[in-house]
């Protein structure tokens, strides 16, 4: 054997293909061959390797090659570099996936917002707590029961409509969005309640009803008299002899139109006839709603501290 090569010695000239040789001989010769198979294979397939001087140009991989030969192949630059490239690609891909996961978690909005992380306790003021024994619950009564919310581990309190109203539709027919109904107290009581709730770390939710007002609201009184910009604050339509202009129904099942003899037109109401719908296509109406929102927002800010 010349230096720098691998020599495979084979007794019967059967090519080493990596599988157990099939001794396809006839008669006794085949039996005898199998009896001594282990001993003969040890010699026949003995591989004489000069492990430090294999010729990569002449040696080809083959199935069943021993570890020593396999190691020679694995050390070839072609295999080694490919292996290292794949290894570092896997490491890089893993790092990219980890970084992307961290970035997504960091940049994503919180799973639960404040209004999702705690029950919201809704209070109907009139029946909750009567602080002055006049027979109706009020804002001071709510303030007196703050410990009740804390005992229940409630973080958010929703106080239903307490605007100045005619008490139609559970106080949702509002006469004035800028005042508290006398039944429930005063604006000073409202401010005091906000302060007390925030001092205890509670958030307050109040209603805004932009869809309609009470028919006693000043805007409606001015609108039915066609006064200036208020003329189109509500949805008016001609109706001959009080006959509704179409068959639209309110949520209560009757006609959504009501005749007003002062203006001699019908106005639209999705709810009760005492709750005429505002004309939200009128920019002046939207401005009025925005002013109400800003006013409430400013009150929160006045007293918010770290809670809003
Ligand atoms: Ca009361």
Task: Describe it.
Keywords: Glycoprotein, Membrane, Transmembrane, Transmembrane helix. The structure is a single chain. The chain is of the alpha/beta class. The chain folds into 3 domains: 6-75, no CATH class; 120-210 and 283-307, TIM Barrel, CATH 3.20.20; 218-268, Oligo-1,6-glucosidase, Domain 2 (Oligo-1,6-glucosidase, domain 2). Helix content is 35%, strand content 12%. Strands 3-4-7 form a 3-stranded parallel β-sheet, covered by helices on one side. Strands 8-10-9 form a 3-stranded antiparallel β-sheet, with no helix packed on it. Strand 9 and strand 10 form a beta hairpin. Mean pLDDT is 81; it is low at 1-33, 38-49 and 302-308. Bound molecules: calcium ion (CA). The site of calcium ion has 6 residues, from loops.
Roughly how many Å apart are the termini?
Answer: 89 Å
CATH architecture of the largest domain: Alpha-Beta Barrel
Determine the strand fraction and express it as a percent band: 5-15%
Low-confidence parts lasting 5 or more residues at pLDDT below 50? Answer: 1-33, 38-49, 302-308
* CATH level-1 class of the largest domain: Alpha Beta
Could you give me the name of the CATH homologous superfamily of the largest domain?
Glycosidases
List the ligand species.
Answer: calcium ion
Coarse structural class: alpha/beta
Number of domains: 3
Q: Can you write the helix and strand succession as a string? A: EHHEHHEHHEEEHEHEEEH
Query: What Rg do the Cα atoms give?
Result: 45 Å
Question: What is the makeup of the main sheet?
Answer: 3 strands, parallel
Which fold does the CATH topology of the largest domain refer to?
A: TIM Barrel
Helix content: 25-40%
Q: What kind of oligomer do you see?
A: single chain
* Envelope shape: elongated
The tally of strands reads: 10
Mean pLDDT: 81
Number of helices: 9
Strands of the widest sheet, in order across it, are 3-4-7
